[in-house]
Every structure is written in structure tokens, then in C-alpha cells.
Design goal:
Length: 64
């Protein structure tokens, strides 16, 4: 039986941590001129995935 492959899109977007999965914010790639500076600043960095989405990402990454 071959090994199960992980979803390559999820592999690029989520990184497992001790407390869940971290991910980048959306809406930060292009057409940023119309967005306020405050909004762009708030979208910087990474955050933890919402607990309701953890099961879906674990299934895509074949964690458990």
C-alpha cells in the first residue's frame, strides 16, 4: 500500500506548533494602495489557526 500524500497547498500554508497551527493572514498580497495603513499593519505576521479549523488541517496534513 502506498503512503498517503499530504495536500501540497496545505503543506505550504500551515506550520504545526505545540499549540496548534500557525498561518499567515490573507488579503496581503496585492492592490494594497487602497487599504489603510492600520489594516496592513494588523495583517502582518502570523497567528494561530482557529480551533474549529484544526481538525480539517490535521486531515489535510495527515498529522493524526
Amino acid at each position: 500500500m502506498p503512503k498517503m500524500k499530504t495536500k501540497s497547498g496545505a503543506k505550504k500554508r500551515f506550520k504545526p506548533t505545540a499549540n496548534g497551527f500557525k498561518h499567515k493572514h490573507a488579503f496581503k498580497s496585492h492592490i494594497l494602495t487602497k487599504m489603510t495603513t492600520k489594516r496592513k499593519r494588523q495583517l502582518r505576521g502570523t497567528s494561530l489557526l482557529h480551533p474549529s479549523d484544526v481538525a480539517k488541517v490535521e486531515r489535510m496534513l495527515r498529522v493524526r
